[in-house]
Amino acid sequence: MQIALKNNTIKIAAMTLGVAVFILLSVCIVRAYFATLIAEKPTARNLQTSIRLDPYNAEYALNLGRLHQYSVLEARPDLAIQELSRSVHLNVYSPQAWLDLGKAYEYQGDTAKAAACMHRASALAPSIPTYQWAIGNFFLLHGQVDEAFQHFKMVLAADRDQGPIYNTAWKASGDASKILAELIPESSYSELQYLNYLVSTHRVDDAQPVWDRIAKSPEKFSASSVSPYMDALIIGQKPKLAYQVWTALREKSLIPATYEALPQNLVENGDFENQLLNMGFDWRLAPVNGIYVGYDDSTFHSPGHSLLIQFPGTQNFDYHQFYQFVPVEPGRVYRLQAFMKTEGITTDSGPRIEVRDTYDSRLLDTYTDSMTGTSTSWVPVSLDFKTSRKTRLVDIFIARPPSEHFDNQIAGKVWVDDVSLTLASNGGVVAN
Description:
Layout: H1 2-39, H2 44-53, H3 58-70, H4 77-90, H5 95-107, H6 111-124, H7 129-141, H8 145-158, H9 163-172, H10 176-182, H11 188-200, H12 204-216, H13 227-235, H14 239-251, E1 284-285, E2 292-296, E3 306-312, E4 319-327, E5 333-343, E6 352-357, E7 365-367, E8 379-386, E9 393-400, E10 411-423
Antiparallel strand pairs: 1-4, 2-3, 3-10, 4-9, 5-8, 5-10, 6-7, 6-9
């Protein structure tokens, strides 16, 4: 009997304890639930009530501290520090709480404590751009440019919207070498983003060291991402530097090598056997409504493609939209050669090949003979010309100047193949 009584007592105590724990947990759950409902409308009174109901929830203290810090109607900077300190005490691993506490100390003028909080937030979120951007701006505002750049660099390594950081860095420093060395991560993605930022903000001279760093890296990237830089150099009348970039892309196997019948040919892809790159020193195509331009693998002079341009007979086209930049030497004699074939080309002004000084057509602008009607076979065309003493870059166009006759709407097809540009056999230099 005595053993049974003891067993019953233990059972009753265990049941009582279990019920007590259940009630306690239920009360905690109910209190937490009502705290959540009340906090959905984040007024100071509601958040204080939520804190009383659920005092270990760091989010309520964080939100109340932010309310006291930023609210126009309920701003209390002293209480902001109190509540934000409570929040980081409850959750020491919250970068947001440390960031807001740092801002509260900054607002009170205590930059030492603010900086300590910023460092703690940075350690907790070393690769999250939102935090690193805010931390970097804090140090920049307080004149610590080197420290700011360390945090901005983390943003650049992770974030794709990098323009604001570059703008901030240039306003804060204005030192191209410092920005490149201390801010730009050593990755082709970040370096190319910065390169094109410099191009877009007309800092092309400052872009060259960035390109030099990219060119030395073993990382692979898309050649088209460098196209804006090459275009800027060409527009800025620096064709030699632009061609050095093009050569580096070829050495890194980012653009295909060309295998021309004439090794000395200066024209890229003159046999149209490689894909049209539409950039750099390859052929470029600007589409024109109604005109078809493409490769033809059924008609060619040398296997297995040619260029086909088809005119619709609807307009008096002034066509110069298929072209290539070619570097040349000033004061030299060159020979342009190609093969062309036509079918049903109308009007007196047919397609031809034009060579023009890129920067000043008054120095050089010459054509091959016009092709009209239908040719029964491939027709060789050639043109000898002298570059002026200022000519360093020429455009080679597959061109059709507008007709001045009444019947001027051009129709028909023209094929072009095996375009080459070489120094004349005598390599002639223009006499002094």
